[in-house]
Amino acid sequence: MGLMGFRLRTPAVALAAFCICPLLLLSACTGGSTQDPRKLSAKHNQAFASAEPQTKAMWDMASDAIKTNGYVVAMQALQALVEQTNITPAQVTAAQVTVTAVSDKMYAAANSGDAAAQEAIQELRKIRSR
Known about the structure:
Blueprint: H1 11-29, H2 37-43, H3 45-48, H4 53-67, H5 71-83, H6 89-111, H7 115-129
Helix pairs in contact: 2-4, 4-5, 5-6, 5-7, 6-7
């Protein structure tokens, strides 16, 4: 028998469980993502410095929204960036990492009773269901 009574059938599964479980525990103990979206957007500005004007404008819109906790605008702009086909892998990564941080911050704020974050979540759900 393996961890908590589960049988680990192959060495690869055992190794994966051994490597992943501590990471999951660490993530749970630290409250998940601890990256500040404001710092991330500033860090990734360089990736968009020479982007096409439309792409740069979208990133700038997301960055400005992040600074004011404009969750809906930030999430929509970042999602639009990720869906573009004309951006570099570094830009895709920057947008994906930032959208995760914004989402984490929004949900943490909502769970702490922030009415604006709760409204943003509801608005984003409405937009997705259209």
